[in-house]
Amino acid sequence: MLLAGDIGGTKTVLALFDVQEDAALIRRHPVIERTFPSQQYQSLDLIIEEFLSDGDFQISAGSFGVAGPIVGDRAQVTNLPWIINAADMRERFGFTVHLLNDLEALATAVPHLERPDLITLSEGQPVERGAIGVIAPGTGLGEGFLVWNRSAARYESYPSEGGHCAFGPTTPLQLDMLNYWLPRMGHVSYERVCSGIGIPNIYTFLRETERYPEPGWLRDQLVDVTDMTPIIVRAGVAGEAEICVATLELFMEILGDQAGNLALTVLATGGIYLGGGIPPRILPQLQSGPFMKFFRDKGRFSEMMSRIPVHVIYNPKAALYGTAYDALALSVA
Q: What range defines the domain where residue 185 resides?
């Protein structure tokens, strides 16, 4: 039995997999899967205890993808007062425990994803065992990558904080936006303009510089909400407000450019995979909008960029599968 977990500030998903040394079984339904409201619990340990109380399970290893920084065996969950200590969990529950960054967990799943899990934006010409890049605009902008380990004969995933690199504009409009936000923010990272927290920043720039009018009905919807992103994205996808359509266009330009930057940085000849909650919600725009143009537009390397496959991860359980595969590697190590 393998215990896998996807740990976030809003919800925690735990699942048990009975793989019997057959990794393919992870692709099927877990033995048990439950979702817990994270903020109603004081620790991950209490959730695990409640989850395991449903039966007498013999667990060989557990792996948890955590939305937050990991240092050694300890993790701090963003937006939760939890400190997760893998060594303490091993002592308490009696099985090997490993903690991964949530993007590292998602990246771990990528080599195991199948056609139904993906929407392909560009088939490209993948290089066997070439490096793979993962970029995931959700609430924030996560990035990770995978490289082939020859001795282990498998891909290994690595986290990255590339989403916090300084935003580099590539058009006059993007430059104007940087100049607008620079004195207000100081450091303008890609996450600030290319994520769930970044979409309202793009929208605010377009509104405050009077490039597009804000319809009254939209102003009324946005005035009292704590998160503007779902309203802006919904109106942009439906084409209900020009300012929202323009916001998504600018977002896709920046996402395409940064995905291309990641591809160049790790030489991702094995492909680029888009994760996170936003890409599946804007699929038609990604397929027909400026994303691929800005992804490929890398000067002398544009021809090489055209050969890199690009996929959207459409399976919402991919990160959970990633922790299960990581737990499997622990159990057979």
A: 162-313
